[in-house]
Specification:
- With 487 residues, this protein is an alpha/beta fold.
- 30% of the residues lie in helices and 20% in strands.
- The chain is built from 14 helices and 23 strands.
- The protein has an eight-stranded mixed β-sheet with strand order 1-19-11-14-10-2-3-4, with helices on both faces. A three-stranded antiparallel β-sheet has the order 6-18-15, with helices on one face. A two-stranded antiparallel ribbon has the order 5-9.
- Strand 7 and strand 8 form a beta hairpin.
- The protein is globular and about 80 Å long.
Length: 487
Amino acid sequence: MDSLKATLAKYNQLHLLTFYEELSDDQKNLLSNDLLSIDFANIHDCYNRYINGVTPGSGQTEDIHPLPPDICGTVSDESAKIWRESGFRLISENKVAVVLMAGGLGTRLGVDYPKGMYDVGLPSGKTLFQIQAERLIKIQLLVKEEFEVDSDIVVPWYVMTCEKTHKQTKEFFTSNNFFGLEKTNVMFFQQSMAPCLDLNGKLLLEGKFKLSRSPGGNGGIYSALKSSGMIDDMEVRGVENVHVYCVDNILNKMADPVFAGFCFDKKADCGAKVVQKSHPGEAVGVVCESRGKFKVVEYSEIDKATAERVDNDGNLVFNSGNICYQYFSFSFLKKICYELETRLKPHITKKKIPYISTETGEIIRPKEPNGYKMEKFIFDVYSLAESFCVLSVNRDEEFSPLKNNDSAAKDNPRTSRESLFALHRSYLSAVGCSFVSATGDGLDATGVCELSPLVSYSGEGLAALSGRVLRLPVHIDSITDVCNNSI
Protein backbone atom coordinates (compact mmCIF):
# COMPACT_ATOMS: atom_id res chain seq x y z
CA MET A 1 0.00 0.00 0.00
CA ASP A 2 2.88 2.37 0.74
CA SER A 3 4.15 2.00 -2.83
CA LEU A 4 0.69 2.79 -4.22
CA LYS A 5 0.38 5.85 -1.98
CA ALA A 6 3.77 7.07 -3.14
CA THR A 7 2.69 6.73 -6.78
CA LEU A 8 -0.57 8.58 -6.12
CA ALA A 9 1.27 11.34 -4.32
CA LYS A 10 3.78 11.68 -7.15
CA TYR A 11 1.02 12.28 -9.69
CA ASN A 12 -1.27 14.33 -7.40
CA GLN A 13 -3.91 11.61 -7.16
CA LEU A 14 -4.16 10.97 -3.40
CA HIS A 15 -7.82 12.07 -3.45
CA LEU A 16 -8.61 8.61 -4.84
CA LEU A 17 -8.07 7.24 -1.31
CA THR A 18 -10.52 9.66 0.32
CA PHE A 19 -12.97 6.93 1.30
CA TYR A 20 -10.43 4.14 1.82
CA GLU A 21 -10.66 3.85 5.62
CA GLU A 22 -14.45 3.42 5.57
CA LEU A 23 -14.36 0.56 3.05
CA SER A 24 -14.66 -3.15 3.80
CA ASP A 25 -11.63 -5.36 3.15
CA ASP A 26 -13.15 -6.60 -0.13
CA GLN A 27 -13.86 -3.05 -1.26
CA LYS A 28 -10.32 -1.99 -0.34
CA ASN A 29 -8.97 -4.79 -2.50
CA LEU A 30 -11.21 -3.79 -5.41
CA LEU A 31 -10.06 -0.18 -5.23
CA SER A 32 -6.39 -1.12 -4.83
CA ASN A 33 -6.51 -3.44 -7.82
CA ASP A 34 -8.31 -0.78 -9.85
CA LEU A 35 -5.60 1.76 -9.04
CA LEU A 36 -2.75 -0.68 -9.64
CA SER A 37 -4.04 -1.25 -13.18
CA ILE A 38 -3.49 2.42 -14.08
CA ASP A 39 -0.42 3.73 -15.87
CA PHE A 40 -0.30 7.05 -14.05
CA ALA A 41 2.85 8.22 -15.82
CA ASN A 42 1.23 7.76 -19.23
CA ILE A 43 -1.98 9.52 -18.15
CA HIS A 44 0.00 12.39 -16.67
CA ASP A 45 1.95 12.72 -19.92
CA CYS A 46 -1.17 12.59 -22.11
CA TYR A 47 -2.95 15.21 -20.03
CA ASN A 48 0.00 17.58 -20.12
CA ARG A 49 0.39 17.11 -23.86
CA TYR A 50 -3.28 17.92 -24.33
CA ILE A 51 -3.16 21.01 -22.10
CA ASN A 52 -0.09 22.23 -24.01
CA GLY A 53 -1.76 21.67 -27.37
CA VAL A 54 0.29 18.64 -28.39
CA THR A 55 -2.23 15.89 -29.22
CA PRO A 56 -2.57 13.08 -31.78
CA GLY A 57 -4.85 15.35 -33.78
CA SER A 58 -2.86 18.58 -33.64
CA GLY A 59 -1.17 19.93 -36.75
CA GLN A 60 -2.82 17.24 -38.86
CA THR A 61 -3.08 19.19 -42.11
CA GLU A 62 0.32 20.84 -42.08
CA ASP A 63 2.23 17.95 -43.64
CA ILE A 64 -0.14 15.50 -45.31
CA HIS A 65 -0.10 14.17 -48.85
CA PRO A 66 -2.31 11.99 -51.05
CA LEU A 67 -1.70 8.25 -51.03
CA PRO A 68 1.00 7.04 -53.44
CA PRO A 69 -0.48 5.02 -56.33
CA ASP A 70 1.71 1.97 -55.72
CA ILE A 71 -0.06 1.08 -52.45
CA CYS A 72 -3.56 1.56 -53.89
CA GLY A 73 -5.98 -0.68 -55.73
CA THR A 74 -9.64 -0.57 -56.74
CA VAL A 75 -12.28 -3.28 -57.01
CA SER A 76 -12.62 -2.41 -60.70
CA ASP A 77 -9.01 -3.41 -61.39
CA GLU A 78 -8.47 -6.35 -63.71
CA SER A 79 -6.53 -7.84 -60.83
CA ALA A 80 -9.69 -8.07 -58.68
CA LYS A 81 -10.46 -11.54 -60.06
CA ILE A 82 -6.98 -12.72 -59.07
CA TRP A 83 -7.38 -11.16 -55.62
CA ARG A 84 -10.71 -12.95 -55.16
CA GLU A 85 -9.12 -16.28 -56.06
CA SER A 86 -6.27 -15.61 -53.66
CA GLY A 87 -8.74 -14.68 -50.91
CA PHE A 88 -10.81 -17.82 -51.54
CA ARG A 89 -7.67 -19.92 -51.20
CA LEU A 90 -6.77 -18.28 -47.88
CA ILE A 91 -10.29 -18.87 -46.56
CA SER A 92 -10.18 -22.50 -47.78
CA GLU A 93 -7.06 -23.01 -45.66
CA ASN A 94 -8.84 -21.58 -42.56
CA LYS A 95 -6.34 -18.73 -42.41
CA VAL A 96 -8.84 -15.84 -42.25
CA ALA A 97 -10.58 -14.49 -39.15
CA VAL A 98 -13.03 -11.63 -38.65
CA VAL A 99 -13.22 -9.27 -35.68
CA LEU A 100 -16.40 -7.27 -35.12
CA MET A 101 -16.28 -4.05 -33.11
CA ALA A 102 -19.75 -4.04 -31.55
CA GLY A 103 -19.38 -2.31 -28.21
CA GLY A 104 -21.73 0.60 -28.85
CA LEU A 105 -25.29 1.04 -27.65
CA GLY A 106 -27.91 2.23 -30.11
CA THR A 107 -28.46 5.45 -28.15
CA ARG A 108 -28.54 7.69 -31.23
CA LEU A 109 -31.01 5.28 -32.79
CA GLY A 110 -33.32 5.75 -29.83
CA VAL A 111 -32.73 2.34 -28.23
CA ASP A 112 -30.88 1.21 -25.12
CA TYR A 113 -29.50 -2.09 -26.42
CA PRO A 114 -26.45 -2.99 -28.54
CA LYS A 115 -26.54 -1.52 -32.03
CA GLY A 116 -26.02 -4.93 -33.62
CA MET A 117 -29.41 -6.02 -32.26
CA TYR A 118 -31.16 -3.24 -34.17
CA ASP A 119 -33.82 -4.09 -36.76
CA VAL A 120 -33.51 -1.53 -39.57
CA GLY A 121 -36.93 -2.39 -41.00
CA LEU A 122 -36.21 -5.06 -43.60
CA PRO A 123 -39.06 -7.37 -44.68
CA SER A 124 -37.23 -10.23 -42.96
CA GLY A 125 -36.87 -8.32 -39.70
CA LYS A 126 -33.20 -9.32 -39.57
CA THR A 127 -30.85 -7.44 -37.29
CA LEU A 128 -27.36 -6.28 -38.19
CA PHE A 129 -25.92 -9.22 -36.25
CA GLN A 130 -28.01 -11.72 -38.22
CA ILE A 131 -27.22 -10.18 -41.60
CA GLN A 132 -23.49 -10.37 -40.86
CA ALA A 133 -23.68 -13.89 -39.47
CA GLU A 134 -25.48 -15.14 -42.59
CA ARG A 135 -22.95 -13.46 -44.87
CA LEU A 136 -20.22 -15.27 -42.96
CA ILE A 137 -22.04 -18.58 -43.39
CA LYS A 138 -22.46 -17.94 -47.11
CA ILE A 139 -18.82 -17.09 -47.84
CA GLN A 140 -17.77 -20.27 -46.04
CA LEU A 141 -20.21 -22.31 -48.15
CA LEU A 142 -19.04 -20.65 -51.38
CA VAL A 143 -15.41 -21.46 -50.64
CA LYS A 144 -16.29 -25.03 -49.65
CA GLU A 145 -18.14 -25.53 -52.94
CA GLU A 146 -15.43 -23.97 -55.08
CA PHE A 147 -12.63 -26.04 -53.57
CA GLU A 148 -14.79 -29.16 -53.18
CA VAL A 149 -13.42 -29.88 -49.73
CA ASP A 150 -15.00 -32.40 -47.38
CA SER A 151 -14.10 -30.68 -44.12
CA ASP A 152 -15.81 -27.54 -42.91
CA ILE A 153 -14.44 -24.13 -43.80
CA VAL A 154 -14.15 -22.03 -40.66
CA VAL A 155 -13.81 -18.25 -40.44
CA PRO A 156 -13.77 -17.59 -36.69
CA TRP A 157 -15.76 -14.55 -35.60
CA TYR A 158 -14.48 -12.50 -32.65
CA VAL A 159 -17.09 -10.09 -31.28
CA MET A 160 -15.84 -7.16 -29.22
CA THR A 161 -18.38 -5.79 -26.76
CA CYS A 162 -18.07 -3.40 -23.83
CA GLU A 163 -18.93 -3.62 -20.16
CA LYS A 164 -22.48 -2.38 -20.78
CA THR A 165 -23.25 -4.57 -23.80
CA HIS A 166 -21.34 -7.80 -23.16
CA LYS A 167 -24.01 -9.82 -21.34
CA GLN A 168 -26.87 -8.71 -23.60
CA THR A 169 -24.90 -9.42 -26.78
CA LYS A 170 -23.95 -12.94 -25.67
CA GLU A 171 -27.52 -13.69 -24.63
CA PHE A 172 -28.83 -12.44 -27.98
CA PHE A 173 -26.50 -14.72 -29.94
CA THR A 174 -27.34 -17.66 -27.68
CA SER A 175 -31.10 -17.16 -27.91
CA ASN A 176 -30.81 -17.05 -31.71
CA ASN A 177 -28.65 -20.20 -31.88
CA PHE A 178 -25.72 -18.11 -33.12
CA PHE A 179 -27.70 -17.52 -36.35
CA GLY A 180 -26.64 -20.89 -37.70
CA LEU A 181 -22.92 -20.59 -36.92
CA GLU A 182 -21.09 -23.07 -34.72
CA LYS A 183 -20.94 -21.46 -31.29
CA THR A 184 -17.38 -22.70 -30.81
CA ASN A 185 -16.34 -20.40 -33.66
CA VAL A 186 -17.97 -17.25 -32.23
CA MET A 187 -16.00 -15.68 -29.39
CA PHE A 188 -16.86 -12.65 -27.27
CA PHE A 189 -14.47 -10.30 -25.49
CA GLN A 190 -14.76 -6.91 -23.86
CA GLN A 191 -13.33 -3.62 -25.03
CA SER A 192 -10.87 -2.05 -22.61
CA MET A 193 -12.04 0.86 -20.49
CA ALA A 194 -10.04 4.06 -19.91
CA PRO A 195 -10.10 6.18 -16.73
CA CYS A 196 -11.79 9.59 -16.82
CA LEU A 197 -10.13 12.82 -15.66
CA ASP A 198 -11.48 16.07 -14.30
CA LEU A 199 -10.46 19.33 -15.94
CA ASN A 200 -7.38 19.53 -13.69
CA GLY A 201 -6.08 16.12 -14.66
CA LYS A 202 -7.26 14.28 -11.55
CA LEU A 203 -8.86 10.88 -11.99
CA LEU A 204 -12.57 10.74 -11.15
CA LEU A 205 -14.26 8.18 -8.93
CA GLU A 206 -17.53 6.58 -10.02
CA GLY A 207 -18.07 5.30 -6.49
CA LYS A 208 -16.17 5.12 -3.24
CA PHE A 209 -14.14 2.13 -4.40
CA LYS A 210 -14.37 2.33 -8.19
CA LEU A 211 -12.72 4.59 -10.76
CA SER A 212 -14.84 6.33 -13.35
CA ARG A 213 -14.13 4.75 -16.72
CA SER A 214 -15.44 4.97 -20.25
CA PRO A 215 -14.85 2.80 -23.34
CA GLY A 216 -11.30 3.46 -24.49
CA GLY A 217 -12.20 3.86 -28.17
CA ASN A 218 -11.94 1.24 -30.89
CA GLY A 219 -8.16 1.41 -30.51
CA GLY A 220 -8.67 -0.42 -27.24
CA ILE A 221 -9.14 -3.52 -29.34
CA TYR A 222 -5.44 -4.34 -29.18
CA SER A 223 -5.10 -4.55 -25.42
CA ALA A 224 -8.48 -6.33 -25.28
CA LEU A 225 -7.40 -8.99 -27.79
CA LYS A 226 -4.35 -9.66 -25.65
CA SER A 227 -5.95 -9.64 -22.20
CA SER A 228 -8.92 -11.77 -23.31
CA GLY A 229 -6.71 -14.42 -24.93
CA MET A 230 -8.32 -13.91 -28.33
CA ILE A 231 -5.00 -13.21 -30.04
CA ASP A 232 -3.72 -16.51 -28.63
CA ASP A 233 -6.84 -18.30 -29.87
CA MET A 234 -6.14 -17.00 -33.38
CA GLU A 235 -2.61 -18.32 -33.21
CA VAL A 236 -3.76 -21.76 -32.10
CA ARG A 237 -6.22 -21.84 -35.01
CA GLY A 238 -3.50 -20.97 -37.51
CA VAL A 239 -5.04 -17.64 -38.53
CA GLU A 240 -2.78 -15.53 -40.74
CA ASN A 241 -5.12 -12.78 -41.96
CA VAL A 242 -7.52 -10.78 -39.80
CA HIS A 243 -10.34 -8.47 -40.92
CA VAL A 244 -11.64 -5.90 -38.41
CA TYR A 245 -14.80 -3.87 -39.02
CA CYS A 246 -17.57 -1.85 -37.33
CA VAL A 247 -21.04 -3.22 -36.71
CA ASP A 248 -23.01 -0.26 -38.08
CA ASN A 249 -22.36 -0.66 -41.82
CA ILE A 250 -25.21 -2.74 -43.26
CA LEU A 251 -23.22 -3.45 -46.46
CA ASN A 252 -20.14 -4.94 -44.76
CA LYS A 253 -18.65 -7.80 -46.77
CA MET A 254 -17.72 -10.41 -44.21
CA ALA A 255 -14.25 -11.91 -44.72
CA ASP A 256 -14.18 -10.16 -48.10
CA PRO A 257 -12.08 -12.44 -50.31
CA VAL A 258 -11.12 -9.64 -52.72
CA PHE A 259 -9.74 -7.51 -49.88
CA ALA A 260 -8.04 -10.52 -48.29
CA GLY A 261 -6.35 -11.42 -51.57
CA PHE A 262 -5.38 -7.81 -52.32
CA CYS A 263 -3.69 -7.29 -48.95
CA PHE A 264 -2.06 -10.71 -48.99
CA ASP A 265 -0.69 -10.22 -52.50
CA LYS A 266 0.67 -6.80 -51.43
CA LYS A 267 2.40 -8.55 -48.51
CA ALA A 268 0.86 -5.89 -46.30
CA ASP A 269 1.13 -5.68 -42.53
CA CYS A 270 -2.02 -3.63 -42.57
CA GLY A 271 -4.62 -2.45 -45.08
CA ALA A 272 -7.72 -0.28 -45.23
CA LYS A 273 -10.82 -0.05 -47.38
CA VAL A 274 -11.84 3.41 -48.54
CA VAL A 275 -14.56 5.03 -50.62
CA GLN A 276 -14.37 8.22 -52.61
CA LYS A 277 -15.75 11.05 -50.51
CA SER A 278 -19.20 12.25 -51.58
CA HIS A 279 -18.22 15.88 -50.93
CA PRO A 280 -15.34 17.75 -49.23
CA GLY A 281 -17.13 18.09 -45.90
CA GLU A 282 -18.34 14.50 -45.59
CA ALA A 283 -17.99 13.30 -42.00
CA VAL A 284 -15.46 10.55 -42.66
CA GLY A 285 -11.75 10.48 -41.93
CA VAL A 286 -9.24 10.66 -44.77
CA VAL A 287 -6.49 8.08 -45.26
CA CYS A 288 -3.33 9.89 -46.33
CA GLU A 289 0.46 9.97 -46.10
CA SER A 290 2.55 12.04 -43.72
CA ARG A 291 6.36 11.96 -43.57
CA GLY A 292 6.54 8.57 -45.21
CA LYS A 293 3.96 7.01 -42.88
CA PHE A 294 0.23 6.52 -43.25
CA LYS A 295 -2.55 7.84 -41.07
CA VAL A 296 -6.20 8.82 -40.88
CA VAL A 297 -7.00 12.48 -40.44
CA GLU A 298 -10.44 12.77 -38.86
CA TYR A 299 -12.91 15.05 -40.65
CA SER A 300 -12.99 17.32 -37.58
CA GLU A 301 -9.20 17.71 -37.71
CA ILE A 302 -8.77 18.67 -41.36
CA ASP A 303 -9.10 22.33 -42.31
CA LYS A 304 -11.58 23.49 -44.94
CA ALA A 305 -8.99 24.55 -47.50
CA THR A 306 -7.26 21.18 -47.37
CA ALA A 307 -10.54 19.27 -47.55
CA GLU A 308 -11.58 21.24 -50.66
CA ARG A 309 -8.27 21.03 -52.52
CA VAL A 310 -8.61 19.57 -56.04
CA ASP A 311 -6.15 18.30 -58.65
CA ASN A 312 -5.81 19.41 -62.28
CA ASP A 313 -8.78 17.22 -63.25
CA GLY A 314 -11.03 18.73 -60.61
CA ASN A 315 -10.96 15.69 -58.32
CA LEU A 316 -10.56 16.00 -54.58
CA VAL A 317 -6.92 15.52 -53.61
CA PHE A 318 -7.81 13.99 -50.24
CA ASN A 319 -10.54 11.68 -51.44
CA SER A 320 -9.88 8.39 -49.65
CA GLY A 321 -12.70 8.23 -47.13
CA ASN A 322 -12.10 5.79 -44.29
CA ILE A 323 -14.94 3.25 -43.75
CA CYS A 324 -13.31 1.50 -40.78
CA TYR A 325 -12.70 -1.86 -42.40
CA GLN A 326 -9.14 -3.01 -41.69
CA TYR A 327 -6.89 -5.89 -42.63
CA PHE A 328 -4.00 -7.11 -40.47
CA SER A 329 -1.49 -9.83 -41.03
CA PHE A 330 -1.60 -11.92 -37.89
CA SER A 331 2.09 -11.38 -37.21
CA PHE A 332 1.64 -7.59 -37.26
CA LEU A 333 -1.52 -7.73 -35.15
CA LYS A 334 0.23 -9.85 -32.54
CA LYS A 335 3.17 -7.45 -32.51
CA ILE A 336 0.79 -4.54 -31.88
CA CYS A 337 -0.93 -6.37 -29.04
CA TYR A 338 2.28 -7.44 -27.30
CA GLU A 339 4.77 -4.69 -28.19
CA LEU A 340 3.43 -1.60 -29.94
CA GLU A 341 0.08 -0.82 -28.30
CA THR A 342 1.66 1.30 -25.59
CA ARG A 343 3.04 3.64 -28.26
CA LEU A 344 -0.47 4.74 -29.21
CA LYS A 345 -1.32 8.11 -27.69
CA PRO A 346 -4.93 8.69 -26.55
CA HIS A 347 -7.16 11.29 -28.15
CA ILE A 348 -8.74 13.42 -25.42
CA THR A 349 -12.23 14.92 -25.57
CA LYS A 350 -14.13 17.07 -23.06
CA LYS A 351 -17.35 15.39 -21.82
CA LYS A 352 -20.01 15.43 -19.10
CA ILE A 353 -18.93 12.71 -16.65
CA PRO A 354 -20.91 11.65 -13.55
CA TYR A 355 -18.70 11.17 -10.47
CA ILE A 356 -18.70 10.96 -6.69
CA SER A 357 -17.57 14.10 -4.88
CA THR A 358 -14.58 13.46 -2.61
CA GLU A 359 -15.78 16.39 -0.50
CA THR A 360 -19.39 15.36 0.17
CA GLY A 361 -19.61 11.73 -0.95
CA GLU A 362 -22.54 12.63 -3.20
CA ILE A 363 -23.00 11.51 -6.81
CA ILE A 364 -22.73 14.50 -9.13
CA ARG A 365 -24.38 14.48 -12.56
CA PRO A 366 -23.01 17.56 -14.32
CA LYS A 367 -25.00 19.56 -16.85
CA GLU A 368 -21.85 20.91 -18.53
CA PRO A 369 -18.60 19.16 -19.56
CA ASN A 370 -16.56 18.62 -16.42
CA GLY A 371 -13.79 16.29 -17.49
CA TYR A 372 -11.94 14.37 -20.15
CA LYS A 373 -12.41 10.96 -21.72
CA MET A 374 -9.47 9.29 -23.41
CA GLU A 375 -9.78 7.18 -26.54
CA LYS A 376 -7.40 5.35 -28.83
CA PHE A 377 -8.33 4.79 -32.47
CA ILE A 378 -7.82 1.54 -34.32
CA PHE A 379 -6.23 3.29 -37.28
CA ASP A 380 -3.49 4.91 -35.20
CA VAL A 381 -1.36 1.81 -35.87
CA TYR A 382 -1.23 2.52 -39.62
CA SER A 383 1.88 4.62 -39.04
CA LEU A 384 3.59 1.66 -37.36
CA ALA A 385 3.18 -0.68 -40.34
CA GLU A 386 6.21 -1.45 -42.48
CA SER A 387 3.91 -2.17 -45.43
CA PHE A 388 0.46 -0.66 -45.92
CA CYS A 389 -2.13 -0.81 -48.70
CA VAL A 390 -5.51 0.72 -49.53
CA LEU A 391 -8.36 -0.74 -51.56
CA SER A 392 -10.92 1.68 -52.98
CA VAL A 393 -14.39 0.09 -53.07
CA ASN A 394 -17.74 1.15 -54.49
CA ARG A 395 -19.80 3.07 -51.96
CA ASP A 396 -23.07 1.72 -53.35
CA GLU A 397 -21.86 -1.82 -52.74
CA GLU A 398 -19.97 -1.53 -49.47
CA PHE A 399 -20.73 1.53 -47.37
CA SER A 400 -23.96 2.69 -45.80
CA PRO A 401 -23.41 3.47 -42.11
CA LEU A 402 -26.17 3.48 -39.51
CA LYS A 403 -25.48 6.33 -37.12
CA ASN A 404 -28.74 8.20 -36.49
CA ASN A 405 -32.47 7.72 -36.06
CA ASP A 406 -34.93 8.57 -38.84
CA SER A 407 -35.22 12.20 -37.77
CA ALA A 408 -31.76 12.76 -39.29
CA ALA A 409 -31.33 13.37 -43.00
CA LYS A 410 -28.77 10.63 -43.60
CA ASP A 411 -27.02 7.59 -42.15
CA ASN A 412 -30.30 6.44 -40.64
CA PRO A 413 -32.41 3.24 -40.81
CA ARG A 414 -34.17 4.42 -43.97
CA THR A 415 -30.96 5.17 -45.87
CA SER A 416 -29.43 1.88 -44.66
CA ARG A 417 -32.28 -0.31 -45.89
CA GLU A 418 -32.63 1.68 -49.12
CA SER A 419 -28.92 1.08 -49.80
CA LEU A 420 -29.43 -2.65 -49.24
CA PHE A 421 -32.54 -2.73 -51.45
CA ALA A 422 -30.71 -0.89 -54.25
CA LEU A 423 -27.77 -3.30 -54.04
CA HIS A 424 -30.04 -6.33 -54.20
CA ARG A 425 -32.01 -4.90 -57.14
CA SER A 426 -28.69 -4.42 -58.94
CA TYR A 427 -27.78 -8.08 -58.35
CA LEU A 428 -31.07 -9.24 -59.84
CA SER A 429 -30.98 -6.73 -62.69
CA ALA A 430 -27.53 -8.02 -63.61
CA VAL A 431 -29.04 -11.43 -64.44
CA GLY A 432 -31.87 -9.90 -66.46
CA CYS A 433 -34.63 -9.58 -63.87
CA SER A 434 -37.10 -6.70 -64.03
CA PHE A 435 -39.55 -5.44 -61.46
CA VAL A 436 -43.19 -4.37 -61.51
CA SER A 437 -45.03 -2.42 -58.87
CA ALA A 438 -47.14 -4.15 -56.25
CA THR A 439 -50.29 -3.39 -58.28
CA GLY A 440 -48.73 -4.79 -61.44
CA ASP A 441 -49.45 -1.63 -63.43
CA GLY A 442 -45.94 -0.85 -64.60
CA LEU A 443 -42.20 -1.33 -64.18
CA ASP A 444 -40.68 -0.14 -60.91
CA ALA A 445 -36.94 0.02 -60.34
CA THR A 446 -37.00 1.63 -56.89
CA GLY A 447 -38.98 -0.62 -54.59
CA VAL A 448 -38.30 -2.94 -51.67
CA CYS A 449 -36.02 -5.84 -52.59
CA GLU A 450 -34.30 -8.06 -50.04
CA LEU A 451 -32.12 -11.05 -50.83
CA SER A 452 -31.15 -13.33 -47.97
CA PRO A 453 -27.37 -13.43 -47.55
CA LEU A 454 -27.78 -17.21 -47.58
CA VAL A 455 -29.01 -16.95 -51.20
CA SER A 456 -26.22 -14.69 -52.49
CA TYR A 457 -23.12 -13.16 -50.94
CA SER A 458 -22.41 -10.58 -53.64
CA GLY A 459 -24.64 -11.30 -56.63
CA GLU A 460 -23.53 -14.84 -57.47
CA GLY A 461 -25.90 -17.81 -57.76
CA LEU A 462 -28.83 -15.96 -59.32
CA ALA A 463 -28.63 -17.22 -62.91
CA ALA A 464 -31.78 -19.34 -62.46
CA LEU A 465 -33.77 -16.10 -62.20
CA SER A 466 -32.57 -14.76 -65.55
CA GLY A 467 -35.26 -12.84 -67.41
CA ARG A 468 -37.90 -13.14 -64.72
CA VAL A 469 -40.31 -10.36 -63.84
CA LEU A 470 -40.59 -9.89 -60.09
CA ARG A 471 -43.46 -8.16 -58.32
CA LEU A 472 -42.44 -5.69 -55.61
CA PRO A 473 -41.92 -5.88 -52.74
CA VAL A 474 -39.40 -8.68 -53.28
CA HIS A 475 -38.15 -10.81 -50.40
CA ILE A 476 -36.11 -13.82 -51.49
CA ASP A 477 -35.19 -16.54 -49.00
CA SER A 478 -34.63 -19.23 -51.63
CA ILE A 479 -34.27 -19.41 -55.41
CA THR A 480 -36.90 -22.18 -55.60
CA ASP A 481 -39.58 -19.97 -54.07
CA VAL A 482 -38.97 -17.25 -56.64
CA CYS A 483 -38.97 -19.68 -59.55
CA ASN A 484 -42.34 -20.95 -58.43
CA ASN A 485 -43.88 -17.53 -57.76
CA SER A 486 -42.47 -14.99 -60.23
CA ILE A 487 -44.74 -13.43 -62.82
